[in-house]
Design brief:
With about 200 residues, the chain is α+β, with helices and mostly antiparallel strands. It has helices at about 10-20, 40-55, 80-110, 115, 140-155, 165-175; strands spanning about 60, 70-75, 125-130, 160-165, 180-185, 190-195. It has a six-stranded mixed beta sheet with strand order 1-2-3-4-6-5, with helices on both faces. The longest helix has 29 residues, at about 80-110. The chain starts with 10 loop residues before the first helix and ends in a 9-residue tail after the last strand.
Length: about 200
């Protein structure tokens, strides 16, 4: 399998990703991960920090038309310290110091995410996926997710993603993922841990 180079993002592209995420309308009385963010700008600051983590760690991939972006890591990949710092600052900027502390505490109380549970055997982790508004509902989500599937098949390990809404979880189920478990961060904030197994691997009994 030919290795696809990480995508270099401009400040404008990072801003587009952040605004696309922050414009998402949650359903089923859910609030997503942004429940402690200070308004729309707080959401943008939070997501911008997370995107910068992916960029600086070399995880971001895209397609020729750049219809969207996916952040993928494998067991061999490690987060860049500068990226972790950018994300931490994004959380604080978006939520305030007190809000960031409460959010981090709630995240820990919710239990280990699926990628942490699979750390021993490893997994391909989809850390972020966003499709530009003008390219949505045209099959690009499947094409970008296939980049992660290709890595999982090559490494003979499962692919996982943690998403923050039931609607998003259903979209991943349509692509072949299965719900592993649902973690609760706050009254209306949840993380849905999804897993996909390549044909050449089998779930542990």
């Amino acid at each position: 399998m030919k290795r696809k180079k990480p995508a270099a993002l401009t400040k404008q592209e990072i801003n587009v990703i952040a605004r696309t995420f922050s414009d998402y309308t949650f359903q089923d009385n859910e609030e997503g991960l942004y429940y402690l963010c200070k308004g729309e700008q707080g959401k943008i600051d939070f997501v911008t920090g997370y995107v910068q983590l992916g960029v600086l760690s070399g995880w971001i991939r895209t397609l020729k038309q750049r219809p969207g972006y996916i952040s993928i890591s494998t067991p061999q990949d490690r987060p860049a310290f500068s990226g972790v710092l950018k994300f931490a600052l994004g959380i604080i900027k978006g939520m305030g110091l007190r809000g960031a502390f409460i959010w981090g505490l709630n995240f820990l109380k919710a239990g280990q995410p699926i990628d942490a549970l699979l750390k021993k055997d490893g997994c391909v982790h989809i850390r972020m996926l966003v499709i530009k508004e003008e390219y949505q509902h045209k099959g690009y989500m499947r094409k970008l997710v296939q980049l992660a599937f290709d890595k999982a098949e090559a490494l003979h390990i499962p692919c996982v993603v943690c998403t923050d809404s039931m609607e998003k979880a259903r979209k991943y189920e349509h692509l072949g993922f299965h719900l592993f478990r649902k973690r609760q961060l706050s009254r209306h904030s949840f993380e849905y841990d999804m897993i996909w197994f390549p044909q050449n691997t089998h779930p542990a009994d």
